Amino acid sequence: MKINGVDVAKILGNHDSRFELWKSFLAQQKTQAMAEVGVWKGDFAAEILTARNSIEKYYMIDPWKNLPDWNKPFNVTPADFDEVYREMDQKTAFAGDRRIILRGRTKDVVGQIEDGSLDFAYIDGDHTLRGITIDLIKIWPKIKIGGFIGGDDFTSSPWQHDLRFEPTLVCPYSIYFAEAMESPIVSLEHEQFLIQKESNSVFSFVDTTGCYGDVSLNRLPDTASRY
Q1: Looking at residue 227, what is its pLDDT?
Q2: The whole model's pTM is what?
Q3: In this predicted structure, what is the pLDDT of residue 225?
Q4: What single string gives the DSSP state of each residue in the chain?
């Protein structure tokens, strides 16, 4: 995948963290409007909003609520979620004129974002098969032509957490989604991915990390046999 003729791998290689990776990318793209799905305590948002004063609108999508149908470790108690929300609010208050907090599930609040208005969206929410499916499908129309979707937890194994929890299926679903949309997708360092939305594009999957030779669900570790 190339951006204005420049190899993505060359732009996004050798960063100490995912924060530095995306700050570099957003600087290259001169991003003005973006969304983050799955904000949690606001660490990513605070990093990006501090580094990129050029971002005029930063949509923050998260329920900040205990969800009875979400079997993941971060599904904490209502009291804990209230504290998480307060921490997020404090960390990003300095950008109060640029942030737009949408408290709710993606499918319930994404309608408040105009279609074709976002330069970039970062997906770091549910991570289950249901969650990544809904997040990608719902955020796609909001991305302008030439824009991008990036995301976290593009793990090479679905068993990211204890086997009591639902598997993480950001990979391979994001690849299948990109194929359905006839769009290129690239794997990046720090378990990140990037999809480009472009007119008349064709699907390709470029693995810049060498970690995704097999993206089938047969690539399970031995521990999964005890699930």
Answers
A1: 41
A2: 0.92
A3: 44
A4: -EETTEEHHHHH-S-SSHHHHHHHHHHHHT--EEEEE--TTSHHHHHHHHH-TT--EEEEEE--S--TT--STT---HHHHHHHHHHHHHHHGGGTTTEEEEES-HHHHGGGS-TT-EEEEEE-S--SHHHHHHHHHHHGGGEEEEEEEEES---SSS--S-TTSPPP-HHHHHHHHHHHTT-EEEEETTTEEEEE--TT---EEEESSS--S--STT---GGGGG-
